[in-house]
């Protein structure tokens, strides 16, 4: 039998996940204005306070690439093959729109909360 | 490191085939980078415990793989890879063999064609629908009641199975082929030769004259098999040429075998104190049995040939990818 505290924890986890999902997409798109490979991108985001595990980042990168927002290529660096990602022209356009939307939401939330 | 390879192998198993290598290459690069950072932090080489810690943090292989899969609803992402694997097993172990044998009888048996074979296909369809329904129901129930418990349980990367080398030819299979080939050649040279009459405890079995040609062909096949298995024992992996030779000898062997089944393989059996009617009935029985298994034998031989052709394509692709022309 689940207690009220457990139910609240579950609900919080679910809502937090939903909130993070959109933010992560924007953060990834934002950082990939400069070309990076997965591991350094993860480190950069973690360093800036937005930790993301590999099991979340790589499927996200793959999805964004399939949607045409990112482009990638395999290149050798330090004798190891790495996949470098960067924002596509379409991705730049979408990011611009998302940032405008984000600013609007942020401004509204600041007033509401 | 071996533990990482085993982990990646386990993740790979659950991934969609088309993206498998790409995803694994990227995940491998990430894990190795994490290991390097860990080593830099510790100031020593990472041991199995450190690597295990990194892999545990990455997540259970099924959980990692399911994040790359499309989101399914009746069967959730945690159970979907296992559900898909179960359906594949049903297809490969039940539906395909059933269809192959059915097709074999339809093509090669006029008697079967006269018995409304489509009706049997309908029975297969009903069976498959029932089976898929039952499997889906079990997984949907498991999804509701079990997923959270197994996905969140602690797991130990050291318990993952070793990563198999799919291109390596098992030494045991080469030794077995070599032994059988040599045994047949020696047996042929000592006793068999072109004999078609054999005696056992007073009984005599006379085989059809076509056996002479069959045994000659088998002798040739055995000689090539001996050479091929000796090469495989040394090289331990397929090359373009050895894979082609395997296809050629399997084609020759299969043709010989199927051709033999189509003939009346036994001419006569005589035995003291056994009435001729009985030995005649046994002779007919053997020949009838041989002709009845002919469709199944053809299907089996076709499967062997398909496996050989797939091996040639795989070897060719692997060599092209590695830039080797041998």
Structure characteristics:
heterodimer; A: 113 residues; alpha+beta; three-stranded antiparallel sheet; 3 strands; 66% helix; 16% strand; B: 326 residues; mainly alpha; 13 helices; extended
Describe this structure in words.
The complex is a heterodimer of chains A (113) and B (326). With 113 residues, chain A is an alpha+beta fold. Chain A contains four helices and three strands; from the N terminus they run αβααββα. In chain A, a hairpin with a 2-residue loop joins β2 and β3 (80-87). The mean pLDDT of chain A is 90. Chain B has 326 residues and is mainly α. Among the domains of chain B are: 80-147; 171-322. In chain B, 73% of the residues lie in helices and 4% in strands. Chain B has 13 helices and three strands; from the N terminus they run αααααααααββααβαα. A three-stranded antiparallel β-sheet of chain B has the order 1-2-3. In chain B, α1 (2-13) runs antiparallel to α2, α5 (80-108) packs across α13 and α10 runs antiparallel to α11. Chain B starts with a helix and ends with a helix. Classes of the chains: A alpha+beta (113), B mainly alpha (326). Chain A binds chain B through residues 37-39, 42, 53-56, 58-59, 62, 74, 80-83, and chain B through 19, 23, 25-27, 29-34, 57-59, 63-64, 67-68.
Kindly provide the radius of gyration of chain B, computed on alpha-carbon positions and rounded to a whole number of angstroms: 27 Å
Largest pleated sheet of chain A: 3 strands, antiparallel
> How is the largest sheet of chain A built, in terms of strand order?
1-3-2
Shape annotation of chain A: globular
Q: Work out the helicity level of chain A.
A: 55-70%
Q: Biggest interface in this structure? A: A-B, 16 and 18 residues
Overall form of chain B: extended
Oligomeric state:
heterodimer
Per-chain topology:
The complex is a heterodimer of chains A (113) and B (326).
Chain A: H1 4-31, E1 36-37, H2 38-47, H3 54-66, E2 70-77, E3 80-87, H4 89-112
Antiparallel strand pairs in A: 1-3, 2-3
Chain B: H1 2-13, H2 20-42, H3 48-58, H4 61-66, H5 80-108, H6 110-113, H7 117-145, H8 147-152, H9 171-192, E1 197-200, E2 203-207, H10 210-235, H11 240-262, E3 266-270, H12 276-292, H13 294-322
Antiparallel strand pairs in B: 1-2, 2-3
Helix pairs in contact in B: 1-2, 2-3, 5-7, 5-13, 9-10, 10-11, 11-13
């Amino acid at each position: 039998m689940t207690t009220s505290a457990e139910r609240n924890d579950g609900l919080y986890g679910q809502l937090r996940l939903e909130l993070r999902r959109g933010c992560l997409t924007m953060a990834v798109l934002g950082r990939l204005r400069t070309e990076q490979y997965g591991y350094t991108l993860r480190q950069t985001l973690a360093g800036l306070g937005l930790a993301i595990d590999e099991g979340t980042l790589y499927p996200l990168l793959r999805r964004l690439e399939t949607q045409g927002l990112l482009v990638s290529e395999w290149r050798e660096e330090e004798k190891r093959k790495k996949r470098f990602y960067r924002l596509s022209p379409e991705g730049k356009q979408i990011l611009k729109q998302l940032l405008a939307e984000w600013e609007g939401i942020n401004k509204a939330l600041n007033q509401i909360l | 490191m071996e533990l990482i390879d085993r982990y990646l192998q386990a993740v790979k198993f659950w991934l969609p085939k088309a993206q498998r290598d790409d995803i694994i290459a990227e995940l491998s690069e990430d894990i190795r980078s994490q290991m390097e950072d860990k080593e830099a932090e510790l100031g020593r080489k990472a041991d199995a415990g450190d690597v295990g810690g990194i892999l545990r943090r990455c997540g259970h292989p099924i959980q990692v793989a399911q994040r790359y899969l499309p989101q399914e609803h009746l069967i959730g992402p945690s159970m979907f890879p296992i559900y898909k694997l179960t359906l594949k097993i049903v297809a490969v172990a039940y539906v395909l063999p059933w269809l192959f044998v059915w097709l074999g009888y339809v093509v090669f048996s006029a008697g079967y064609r006269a018995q409304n074979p489509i009706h049997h296909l309908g029975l297969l369809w009903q069976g498959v629908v029932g089976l898929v329904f039952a499997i889906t129901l079990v997984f949907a129930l498991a999804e509701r009641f079990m997923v959270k418990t197994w996905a969140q349980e602690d797991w130990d990367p050291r318990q993952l199975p070793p990563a198999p080398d799919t291109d390596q030819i098992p030494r045991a299979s080469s030794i077995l082929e070599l032994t059988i080939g040599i045994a047949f050649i020696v047996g042929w040279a000592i006793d068999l030769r072109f004999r078609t009459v054999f005696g056992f405890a007073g009984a005599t079995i006379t085989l059809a004259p076509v056996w002479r040609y069959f045994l000659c062909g088998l002798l040739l096949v055995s000689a090539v098999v001996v050479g091929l298995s000796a090469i495989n024992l040394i090289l331990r992996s397929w090359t373009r040429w050895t894979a082609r030779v395997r296809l050629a000898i399997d084609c020759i062997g299969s043709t010989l075998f199927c051709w033999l089944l189509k003939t009346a393989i036994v001419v006569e059996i005589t035995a003291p104190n056994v009435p001729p009617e009985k030995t005649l009935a046994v002779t007919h029985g053997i020949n009838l049995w041989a002709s009845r298994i002919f469709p199944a034998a053809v299907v089996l031989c076709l499967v062997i040939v398909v496996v050989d052709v797939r091996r040639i394509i795989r070897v060719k692709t692997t060599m092209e990818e590695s830039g080797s022309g041998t």
